[in-house]
Amino acid sequence: MVTGRSGGELHNVRPEADGSISLELTPVTSAVPGALREAPIRYQVANPTLSATVEFPGRLSRYDVFHVGAILEPGAWRQTLRLDGRPPDPAAGRVRVRARAMTEEWHAPGCTLRVSSFCDAGRNAIYQAYELTSLDDQPHELEALISAAFVSDEELSAYGLHYDERYDAIVAIFGETASAGPRRPAEGPARAALLGADLSPAEWEVSGPRAYLTYRLHAGGGQSVGFCLVVTGGWQRQEHEALFQQAIGRWRQELDGAQRYGDWLAGRLEVHDRVLHSAFVAALNAAASAYRVDREGRFRGLLPAPEEGSAPAVVIPCDVYWCSQALLPFWPERVREAIFSLARAVHEDGRLGRSIRTLPEYEEGPGGSDPSAYEVWPDACDSPSYFAMLVHDYVCWTGEQDLLEERVGGRSIWEKALACVSYLRSRDTNHDLLFEKRRTQPDWAFDVLRDDWVTYDLCLHCQALKNVSEMALLRGDEATARDMVTWMNGAQTAINRRLWHEGRGHYVDYVRSYQGFVEDHAAIDTVVAALYGIGTESQCHRHLEHLERMLETRQNEQQYYGDWGLMSCYPFYKERGDLEGRSAWAYSFHNGAAWPGWSGVFALAELLHRRPGWRYALERWWTYALERRWLTPPEYYAPPYDAPELRQSLPLYAWSGMPAAAMILGGFGVWPNIAGEVVLRVPPWGDSRLNGVRLRGEVYDIVAKDGVVSVWHEGDVVASGEHGLRIRLGRAVQQRAGA
Questions:
Q1: What's the CA gap between 650 and 632, in Å, rounded?
Q2: Which end of the chain has a smaller Cβ tally under 10 Å, C or N?
Q3: Do 244 and 196 contact (CB within 8 A), yes or no?
């Protein structure tokens, strides 16, 4: 049992030194406040082509393919095991999860069984490896019965299962499927799936939509033997026959690869605090799992969650931006591709939607330059800022100024970023330097109908203006740079005049000036005012202190559910008429739920301003999740609801990777400016090491030890300084005096 420093005890759950999470197989009971009795053990894995959910014991409860959808009937997979003729005792085993794998270990007299369910780095295939080891001089036997049902519904014009002796596998044919797009052809090509192993089944049966396979494995005295079950589907049969053969022929190498990927994640941060380390590994894996690649090369980019991979799949600029903060230090090329995926949807005047299709809804015509073909929810008031900020951050990390001249739909990335900030400026209808949000115009909190002056949207706009001015200077366009800075300074002054509540010491959520209405509760998204330094240092500290007091549930005794993390707002919204959908209920969605992504942003602001309570936001979301066996970061959660869709949202969520970014950017200070300069610091958690950070074409390790921070490159110390260090990194390393 481990106790998180900022939260409660982790019952039956233990973060390990390698960043994995191990679980005892006894069920969670009501002794854990707010936990559901007998909470199941579920774990989500993903690679660029698929996502899957594994549920103990050994059930593949979900398998989805990007741009295809579900392959297996959700929840229909069953596994029955017998070791030497007896079911294994659940109390004699354990589960361990990390990165792309969940491993179950079973112990019986004289033998052990390990079942590893995993995906590899890129194939559209799910593996389930069985390894039986005799620990004495006696033979032992495993019998594994697997049953599964493939997706079948009224949209399929044909469906059938049969056993193919060439592959010793069940083959499913899905027939022709109706297409999702209104202006696409009515039917698509036949789809197929294969289910089998590198071991011939002792028995097999097909009954209606369900397939049954029985495997028997014999281990002689002192021997270790294994086989691997593989399921692959969603494309044409010929493709899956080839994929199936590759997968069963390489499963041991791919299992080793899944282990190496987990080791790589764990090796990015070296720190003695296991809770902090496991939160970093889980968050970084969530961000990495957002990356999706269409097999036909039509899309490469970042999805909000792995399960949102069927047509019409969407990307969300807000989610892409925050997820990218965790990806830029290690996978900047993925962020580059995400920029291009968003650029297609930027209108000529700079409008950009909240939700962007991964594929166009209809044929765009010559040049593919119709942004409307990509929009699901058009004209968001935060998306244009996020696009400009993302382009800026990519250039800061990589130094690749040439990106700005790349063209998408007939216009350069620079022209699109400039258009984005100019569009928001044009929305300032009363010429007070604050653009007015329309009531139904979406931002991240799309079902809260806040309008006029919204602190979150206006602070993002200020940061985008600043970022565009820096890129303009980089291009030698001093007139544009001066114009952007002048507007930014005026907007910043107006925000502090209109939206700062001096008496309470915080920024309000929004002001409806034409009614004289002020929503002055504490709102988590206003943390961007402190993050981007909209006010003075004193204002930033007062604002963060107010948010701590109202939103940290450990401090807020007015809410009813104890210590469960950082709320998105409190008190709840005053105007019931401003709330729609899931946010209409207190504690739900945008009206009070906890968001690990916003916890990460808040922790970043706390770390940058050296607040003493930084740890709570950084890890309480994680310890609360582990107490409930939520083993991958969710989008959001709320304690009062038993309905799964209200209590906990989609798992393995992209921008819930922000806590990892907070440790990199705020803890170590690796947050480069447009010149590639960083201000490094010793993290408040003390001695630790950040490995393999990619910055300006080079790879660096940042080491904090005994109050000294050092930069290592190719085994040599580049620079070091006591407490902190200001340094410009890149291929031509330049230094200045330590900060």
A1: 10
A2: N
A3: yes
User: Taking a C-beta distance cutoff of 8 angstroms, is the pair 32, 651 a contact?
Assistant: no
Q: Can you give the pLDDT at residue 209?
A: 82
Phi, psi of 115 (to 5 degrees): -120, 115
Confidence at residue 184, expressed as pLDDT on a 0 to 100 scale: 40
β-bridge partners, 140: 219
Q: Could you tell me the two tokens for 546? A: 């107010």
Task: For residue 709, list its beta bridge partners.
Answer: 704, 721
**Between the CA atoms of 297, 302, 306 and 307, what dihedral angle is there, to the nearest 10 degrees?**
-80
- Token digits of residue 8: 């409660």
Mean pLDDT of the chain: 91
The pair phi, psi for residue 467, each rounded to 5°, is -65, -40
The angle formed by the CA atoms of residues 252, 258 and 261, to the nearest 5 degrees, is 140
DSSP-derived 3-state class of residue 450: coil
What's the token pair of residue 527?
Answer: 């943390």
Run of H or E including 317? helix 317-327
Q: Is 279 helix (H, G, I), strand (E, B) or coil?
A: helix
pLDDT above 80 for 159: no
Distance CA 71, CA 192 (A): 9
Residue given tokens 């707002």 in the structure block: 569
Is 721 strand, coil or helix? strand
Q: Does the structure show a pLDDT above 90 at 307?
A: no
Structure tokens at 680: 């490094």
On whether the CB atoms of residues 303 and 297 are closer than 8 A, the answer is: no
Give CA–CA dist 459/495, Å, rounded: 8
Chain centroid offset of residue 142 CA? 37
d(CA 558, CA 334): 43
Integer Cα distance of 368 and 360 in angstroms: 9
Q: What is the mean pLDDT of residues 252-276?
A: 98
Nearby residues of 51 by Cβ (< 8 Å), 6 or more positions away: 44, 45, 62, 63, 64, 66, 289, 306, 307, 309, 652
Tokens of 249: 């022929």
> What are the backbone dihedrals phi and psi of residue 605, each rounded to the nearest 5 degrees, phi first?
-65, -40
Give the number of other Cβ atoms within 10 Å of residue 170's Cβ: 25
Q: In this structure, are strands 93-98 and 101-108 parallel, antiparallel, or unpaired?
A: antiparallel
Q: Is pLDDT at 641 greater than 80 in this prediction?
A: no
Paired with 192 in beta bridges are: 173
Tell me if 52 sits within 8 A of 126, measured CB to CB. Answer: yes
491-511: average pLDDT:
98
Amino acid letter for position 478:
E
Distance CA 34, CA 580 (A): 26
Q: Is the pTM of this model over 0.85?
A: yes
DSSP three-state, residue 674: coil
Query: What is the distance between the terminal CA atoms of the chain, rounded to a whole angstrom?
Result: 41
| Pick from 177, 193, 273, 187: nearest CA to 234 | 193
pLDDT at 151: 85
Q: H helices within 145-250, ranges in order?
A: 237-249
Beta-carbon neighbour count of residue 133 at 10 Å? 16
pLDDT (tens digit, 9 = 90+) per residue, 568-594? 999 999 999 999 999 999 999 999 999
**Whether pLDDT at 39 is above 90:** no
Which residues neighbour 342 within 8 Å (Cβ) at sequence distance 6 or greater?
301, 315, 317, 320, 352, 356, 387, 390
- Give the whole-angstrom CA distance, residue 89 versus residue 108: 8
- Nearest CA among 678, 641, 496, 499 for reference residue 564: 641
Return all residues near 131 (Cβ < 8 A) that are at least 6 apart.
Answer: 113, 114, 115, 116, 224, 225, 226
Place of tokens 């960083």: 678
Q: Looking at residues 610-624, what average pLDDT do you find?
A: 97
**Residue that is written with structure tokens 């630790």 in the block:** 688
According to DSSP, the residues that pair with 686 across neighbouring strands are none
Distance of CA 384 to the CA centre of its chain: 21
Return d(Cα 464, Cα 112) in angstroms, integer. 57
Residues 362/183, Cβ–Cβ less than 8 Å = yes
